[in-house]
């Protein structure tokens, strides 16, 4: 194991079995080329459940363990930010029972994991139109944001009631309000000014976007932010996604030559 990888190994002692595939993959990581921000489209819960003759909601429940493992791994790898796509604006079209279950799982996750977020210095933020959620859920989400606001470790974003196009519309509305108040001219607007009005303001754009379940779509996710993001697809269903898959994605990312449109 290289000296660079060794610094990560110290944080995985007792978590990764010596001699395992996970240890091998961890040793292959280049500490000098780690992505700052990873975004994940968590897909495949329903198909995972169907393949096991289970209800769709059982797939969503199984996916919670993948969330825990991924957040823990991102923290140990000392990433700056992790964004998980949990519930899109379009997801309201799903059966009411399924939507209700997803919201209950979210509340349960927060109640159980909030102490863990605090203990691990993790900041929590919601990306999306939070005011479109039930009042009790809004309250719990805002409390979690406030409690973790002064933490300085991983920025853990959950995209809820989120849509990439809606985010851009909301940013435009915010810019218009600001311009009316300040008298700013159209020429004052550039991409940096615009980015300050996005839900992810102050965060680096994702270096790596992962989508599980074998689908090859962006699904209206972080449309502005992923202009130069590297994308990694896997056939693994989200409930089966674990740290070894995250390691594989990062290793593949580190082999790529990012030119940002240059030669």
Characterization of the model:
The structure is a single chain. With 263 residues, this protein is of the alpha/beta class. Helix content is 45%, strand content 13%. It has helices at residues 3-11, 21-27, 45-51, 56-76, 96-119, 135-148, 164-182, 191-195, 243-254; strands at 37-41, 81-88, 123-127, 155-162, 208-211, 230-233. Strands 3-4-2-1-5-6 form a six-stranded parallel sheet, sandwiched between helices. α3 packs across α4 and α5 (96-119) runs parallel beside α6. 33% of the residues are buried. The mean pLDDT is 94.
CA-to-CA gap between the ends?
A: 33 Å
Mean pLDDT, rounded to whole units? 94
Strand content: 5-15%
SSE class: alpha/beta
The H-and-E topology, N to C, reads as HHEHHEHEHEHHEEH
> How many individual domains?
1
Number of strands: 6
Radius of gyration, taken over Cα atoms and rounded to an integer in Å:
19 Å
CATH architectural type: 3-Layer(aba) Sandwich
Q: Order of strands side by side in the largest beta sheet?
A: 3-4-2-1-5-6
Features:
263 residues; 6 strands; alpha/beta; Undecaprenyl pyrophosphate synthetase
List the helices and strands and how they pair.
Blueprint: H1 3-11, H2 21-27, E1 37-41, H3 45-51, H4 56-76, E2 81-88, H5 96-119, E3 123-127, H6 135-148, E4 155-162, H7 164-182, H8 191-195, E5 208-211, E6 230-233, H9 243-254
Parallel strand pairs: 1-2, 1-5, 2-4, 3-4, 5-6
Helix pairs in contact: 2-9, 3-4, 4-5, 5-6
